[in-house]
Amino acid sequence: MLRVRLTHRLRHxxxxxxxxxxxxxxxxxxxxxxxxxxxxxxxxxxxxxVSDAGGRVVSQDVxxxxxxxxxxxxxxxxxxxxxxxxxxxxxxxxxxxxxxHWMEDGVFGADLRMRQxxxxxxxxxxxxxxxxxxxxxxxxxxxxxxxxSDERRRDFGHxxxxxxxKDLSQVRIRPLAAAGxxxx
Length: 184
Fold this sequence. Notes:
Elements: E1 28-37, E2 44-52, E3 57-64, E4 69-70, E5 79-88, E6 91-106, E7 109-125, E8 130-139, E9 145-149, H1 152-161, E10 171-173
Parallel strand pairs: 1-8, 8-10
Antiparallel strand pairs: 1-5, 2-3, 2-6, 4-5, 6-7, 8-9
C-alpha cells in the first residue's frame, strides 16, 4: 500500500471576509490578478504557483476564462481571469510559475495545447500587511507567453465593486518583476 504524507498544506485563497483587507493575526495577504487571453476563452484555463524561500509550492490558484472575470471600475472593460487573494505567513516568496491549457482548432479537429511558464518574480510579506502584486497575464493567442504588469486601477476597482472594500489606503503596492533566471 502506498502512503503519502503531506509535509505542508497549500494555502487557501478566495475573497476577503466581511469587506476588509485585514489579514488574520500573524498572517499577510497577497493580491495578484491572474488573467489570460485566448482565441477561444470558453475552452481555456490558466493557473499560477507561489513558492516559499525554500522552493516549496505554498499557494496555487486557477482561473477559467469562461467563468472568472476581473471587473474593474465602473465603465472599464472587464478582463478574463480572477483577482486572487492569498493568505500567507510573513516571509519571502516568489511567483514561481504559470501554466495554461487551451483548445485550438486544427486540421483534424480541436487540439489541446498545454504550456508551462517558469517565473522568478520575488516578493516579501510582513505580518499584518496586504500587498498588491499586479497582474500575471497568460497570452495563449499567437505566441504563448506570460507578462507581468501593474493593473491597479482595474484591480482596485474590482476590490471596491465586487469585494466591497471601501478603504484601500492600507494596501501596499508592490508590482511583480522578473528577477533573473527561473528556478526549476
